[in-house]
Amino acid sequence: MSDTEIVESSFTATINVPIDKIDIPAWCFSLSEAEYQGCSPAHIAAGFTTAPDGRRMSINVEVIGGSLMVQHYVETLGRKDHLILESVSDVFTPAGRTTLHILWEMSVRTIDGERCEFTNHVRSTATDEFRAFLDRQGIPLDVFRSQRQPMSIAHNRGETPFFAASIERAALRN
Known about the structure:
Blueprint: E1 5-15, H1 24-28, H2 33-37, E2 43-50, E3 56-64, E4 67-79, E5 82-93, E6 96-112, E7 115-126, H3 128-137, H4 141-173
Antiparallel strand pairs: 1-7, 2-3, 3-4, 4-5, 5-6, 6-7
Protein name: Polyketide cyclase
Organism: Ancylobacter novellus (strain ATCC 8093 / DSM 506 / JCM 20403 / CCM 1077 / IAM 12100 / NBRC 12443 / NCIMB 10456) (Starkeya novella)
């Protein structure tokens, strides 16, 4: 764990379609708000747009551990079987607004001719702004980290099978 890492977690779920039918970026950048909301009770809203440099961007709004987060996920790798998104996410807390850096990586690998294993990997790290935010409150990063990890890990664990099911539905529609 780096000195800025807050949480890193990965969970897997089975998708019951062949890998050649899956297109994670197409799913992500066409995900309806209702479908996103159905993947976690913490999910509030989702949409997609483009970053200033033209790359695709997924906008997600959710509440984790009582903090509202607005995530601006910019595509850094977009293959049908592997999508990496990065965001400097806005975090709204009772103590004010700050930012976190989030890496969201989704991938699939073949299990057999009819099934794939979906991996949902999320890593959050402190931005300089976030470290200053904690410093102003006298909160050591390791204390924040220990409180945040269980909530973030539980969130990822909970949404992973629902994301897999949503990707499966999208693959079956296409």
